[in-house]
Amino acid sequence: xxxxxxxxxxxxxxxxxxxxxxxxxxxxxxxxxxxxxxxxxxxxxxxxxxxxxxxxxxxxxxxxxxxxxxxxxxxxxxxxxxxxxxxxxxxxxxxxxxxxxxxxxxxxxxxxxxxxxxxxxxxxxxx
Length: 127
Description:
Elements: E1 4-7, E2 11-13, E3 18-24, E4 33-39, E5 46-51, E6 58-60, E7 68-73, E8 78-83, E9 92-99, H1 106-111, E10 116-117, E11 121-126
């Protein structure tokens, strides 16, 4: 059973950096695609980034513009999201997600849904 647990969210100033971590306490297969989504207050959930099982392909939301980097360590069952140059509009609950099927485009992950979700970690960027 997949059990995703996010950590690393906290209050940070504009321009600062954070690294979010996602641990799989269950049995996520290394073939699963792993991703990050976010939801700001009063807004719909938004795609942030996804990485394929072997880490060979990465996809990002349009708003990222080189500021965020997704990575994974399959030996440790961990997925990370390094966020730099943070802005107040990045304030949101960030969710880790896993998908059994791998797609090679961001559209699929955004629109077909992910199979497993964590409970989220709150990132607040102060102005």
